[in-house]
Fold each of these.
Amino acid sequence: MSQHRPTASSAASMDESTIAAFRGHLRGELQQPGEEAYDTARKIWNGMFDRRPALIARCVSAADVIQAVNFARTQGLLVSVRGGGHSLPGHSVCDGGLMIDLSPMKGIRVDPVRQTVRAEPGVLLRELDRETQAFGLATTCGVVSDTGIAGLTLGGGQGWLMGKYGLTIDNLLTVDIVLADGRLLCASECENEDLFWAVRGGGGNFGIVTSFEYRLHRVGPTILGGMILYPREQAQEVLSFYRDYSMNTPDELSVVAALFTSPDGLPVVALVVCWSGSLAEGEACLGPLRQLGTPLADLVGEMPYCQLQSMLDAALPPGMARYSKMGYLPHLEEQLIKTVLDHTAEMSSPYSMVLFNAMKGAVTRVAADATAFPHRNPQWHFDIVAQWLDAAEQEQHSAWARGRQQLAGRR
Ligand SMILES: Cc1cc2nc3c(=O)[nH]c(=O)nc-3n(C[C@H](O)[C@H](O)[C@H](O)COP(=O)(O)OP(=O)(O)OC[C@H]3O[C@@H](n4cnc5c(N)ncnc54)[C@H](O)[C@@H]3O)c2cc1C
């Protein structure tokens, strides 16, 4: 539903009575430029986008979403849909059209007996984790806690628990979804199956989801997690180890490799781990990792699951400008690692980073055509993230991220 082209009118040319009538049909607020909360509501995580919708409908219910969709369709407006606002390419905010802002929709209901949770599309990962962890339960979510469940789920949803429990979509049971014609449908494995297939990985292209229901699992309350940091000079050895270790350990272990600059300006490589099984078995499984190289710091230990879920937040704060290139790597050959390291050595901003995330276990045991998310082979998800503070520096930092197209384009 993101970024439909305007067909007839634009909100700017709409008369006040039409807007007032729309406002009267909403339970949530309708904001326009100049109003107090407008500038806060139009901000998204990626500071590269400073777009100005003509109207922001801050929906509080499915009925508000239906009103907003019907209004946009009948008025021929450009539409953007905002959940948690973490769209890297800025799809959740538009210029001149109607922004359908779902962030006030925060309802969460855990059923500890059925081990399921139902959540509305304005919920952030940390909010979902907090409610489910109150019952010792969790489902696969991403690794930065202020990401929205909505966009994350619709894109597949990778996270620390995916080796054991699959992607977020592999735990999705039902959605309620408002279609472009304003009808609200329920989709699941046994109802509107095609639509359910499409929303599991197909993004926001099929309608606006107003409720997600997920399967939960016993997790925590503590897990074994954290990071081990090495100086960049050891990166070839660390990444070669990572290639074999990250794919050949039990499903309970997830390992992310990250190349970045430490807050005191040191180029480092980190292996960040999450072991979600028994703590004693986890210690044994981490043994080979603890023998590796000469670390600067070993910060792996027992911690609350929610603490691990927010551990990377500080490295990816809202507001900075970003440009990212990502892809999937079926192999991590020595030459490829060397190419990555050469590229990282040319990093143009101290806030930028390169990340690898091993996709193995339960993720790879789902057929490629079972959902709209087809990347089901054992492989590494690979992300080159350029981040910078001064908007005027866009060209140089995005050029760095694009600099190894042959990596980002690989499948
Ligand atoms: C810092 C950061 C960390 C990340 N970490 C991970 C990770 O660990 N794992 C992972 O899998 N992904 C990760 N991502 C990617 C993230 O999942 C996507 O950017 C996701 O789209 C963000 O969802 P959102 O609701 O926050 O974003 P939004 O910007 O609100 O929405 C993203 C897209 O989904 C559409 N959309 C939002 N809500 C709805 C809805 N209810 N119905 C229909 N369409 C909707 C929007 O229109 C937009 O196109 C990360 C992204 C960032 C920026």
Amino acid sequence: MKFLDLQGNKFPALGFGTWQLEGDTCLGAVQKAIDIGYRHIDTAQIYGNETEVGSAIEKSGIARKELFVTTKLWTNNFEAGRVASSMEESLSKLRMDYVDLLLIHWPNPEVELSETLGAMAELVKKGKTKAIGVSNFPVSEMRKAVEECKANIACNQVEYHALLSQNAVLKYASDHNIIVTAYSPLARGKLVGHPVLTGIGAKYGKTAGQVALRWLIEQKDVAAIPKAASEKNARANFDIFDFELSKEDTAALNKLKGNMRVVNPSIAPEWDAA
Ligand SMILES: NC(=O)c1ccc[n+]([C@@H]2O[C@H](COP(=O)([O-])OP(=O)(O)OC[C@H]3O[C@@H](n4cnc5c(N)ncnc54)[C@H](OP(=O)(O)O)[C@@H]3O)[C@@H](O)[C@H]2O)c1
């Protein structure tokens, strides 16, 4: 495993995504992921699976401090009082005293960003989360958080994969010591079987999906959180630490970067140009 330094916390560069994993399927998948070796689990209030994630962690017997758990505040919990009370609900579902990272899930112009970030900073002081961050923030919103609100942002979790350039976000993040976590790192399955990635993978005995993930985690201060309901896929995604992409292959992958977004709901902000 490769670890990143997230404001002094050990952040596994490869995590396990849980969007659309629910009930027993989620419980089983997270238990299996921890068995495989994943130590970084990504959930969110809106996923409706914090209870199952917490239960899988409890059943794993792995010490809490060995795991990195991220959750995200949903947009109806951005007022200061709701930040605190919904965090208590999340911790109670997760059956833990703290999370490692708490994110604002999406920008919400209806609540002052400074109010939400201020309340989140209080949760750090109270030990309810080790660090705070944002998700789906283009550079304009990151700038607001860092420069206007003076918030101590550790991470921006955004869609990022070989077919989507995130150059602007990556540059701002790197200049401000912010880790970028790549969500939908397999473009929700669309990269599996991609001819260029398949061709590169053949040289290393790896699949297109493994190449897609390896390309991400080789980047400085970038993490990736693929989701896999099936054990086979979860294992394959974890099996990326025994090879290194050549400079030529990395360059070929960098050239693919375009503007293919697979997550773009109506609440999305105006994205940075590709
Ligand atoms: N912050 C946000 O707004 C946000 C938005 C989207 C996602 N996320 C986070 O990022 C995580 C990952 O993103 P995602 O779930 O959208 O997409 P993803 O990880 O890019 O792709 C998941 C899809 O790829 C398939 N897959 C996984 N590994 C595979 C493999 N080795 N070979 C073939 N197919 C494979 C999965 O199938 P099976 O499940 O059937 O195995 C699933 O259909 C989410 O679960 C969530 O935690 C966050």
